[in-house]
Amino acid sequence: MPDSVVSEITELTAQLRADILRILRDEGPAVGTALTERALAARLNVSRSPIRKALQHLHDEGYVARTETGRYLVARTGTDIGSVDAYEPDDDLYQRIANDRLDGLLPDRVTENALLRRYALTRARLAQVLLRISQEGWIAPLPGYGWQFLPVLTSIESYRDSYRFRIVVEPAAVLEPTFRLDEAAIRRRRDEQQRLVDGAIWTVSAAQLFDLNSQFHETIAECSGNSFFIDALARINRLRRLIEYRQTLVPERAVVRCREHVALADLLLQNRLDLASAFLRDHLSTVAPEKTEPHEE
Description:
mainly alpha; Arc Repressor Mutant, subunit A; 3 domains; three-stranded antiparallel sheet; 6 strands
């Protein structure tokens, strides 16, 4: 009992530390901005106690400052933070649940007791992996009891259709009259892709690679200023997450696509929007058949 409780708190704190760091990096609040436990707890859907522990760790690391009255303030932000590794406890367990869901071995509704029996888990381990899955948007708690798996793409045909949709929508988003480049955000995404090209592609997990690549594309869509483009791409990425793990390219091919991301970011930063839109269409059109071919076992 004591060991499992300590483990759960440690894992949750590490997850929240990474989440808060990502907020500071991506949203770039000014140094000195107040960080309130209440606001962060509401945003990250947890209680204030683990937020407090995460802020204490970030204070020890110099990312946040603390006033004499105990309030936390932003001490470092934006590019000063650099990359933030996704915290992924128990990745093997996570992948087993993802595979079982894709294979139709898990029903739409499950109870924690059923999952505990199926995977021979402690409640602490199950709570942590369910937290991660719910944050990624493919499971949600039912009122009162149990969990509901949310819809995802489960076939190559639907996965291929998602690429056809993206080929239409994403290049068009770049040409929207409301498109305004968020230069700082695009530079951060470019740097992430460049680190993958420089060797990180060999060490990241399939989930981390999906997050980095989908965030790159979503950041471009967000510059369109059109909520329909933004929401549509976010929803497609949420739906394709699980099948994407099975269709992930080998590192030798994935690094080619990451180089294309860097080149696309450069076109955007040069304000060559027509070329960027065409480049994005070609990128999606060529990666689609590469990703939608069934992988050999």
